[in-house]
Amino acid sequence: MDQFWQLIVLVSKLLWAKAAAGYFALGVLAEAVFQNFWVQFVTAVVVGMIVVKLIEFSIRYYYYHNFVHRKLKNSLGAPADLDLFFQTTMKRDISRGLLPNLRFLRSFFLQMRRTELRLLHTYLRTNIRTLKSGKPIGYSVGVLIGLFTSFAMDILTINNLSFSQETTMKTVLLVVVWFIIVHLWMNKRIRSFSQLDGIVLACLNEKLTDPFDPEEDHDVDLLFEEKMMKEHS
């Protein structure tokens, strides 16, 4: 029995030595790999995007929590308000294709009153204008994130701030990458709002010309339709 336990201890020590040697080798390899600038660059960008996503998730969770508990009396200025609206009024399902999804949205919007569609149209147009006018601020934030990433990677140091050819190129590369990320994100939001606004307008125009939907004064509807056509022409 003692020999059996000695054999177990010996095998355990051999396995531990193998694991320690493998761990040490992996540690040396990881250290050597992370000394490469491009590996550090990709890691910093990925970590930065994760941090930004976590901040965005925290903000959305705040609005979701307050929305569920009815603590927000007027949240039209909230960035997550539109998502809240669609998550609470439409059940998200697996995409069945472009045309089936458009038919579903059409049937959903046609159930709304004209006034509700107009309010939704105004809200979407306001978000589009806000994003377009806020592009300079977004680009400035992207530049600041790029500079902060450069400081975090010790490319630039606060105590000894100096610009050589290498530090300048690396910092400019980080700034340009974050500038492009912000640009793509803002354009994606604008495109989503614009596509949704187009569907809302199409459904509203369909309701305006529907003789079986005499909800409001037709003259007022025609004036509103003419105003919308001028706005989007």
UniProtKB/TrEMBL annotation:
Keywords: Membrane, Transmembrane, Transmembrane helix. The chain crosses the membrane at residues 37-63, 137-156, 168-186. This is MotA/TolQ/ExbB proton channel domain-containing protein. It comes from Fictibacillus fluitans.
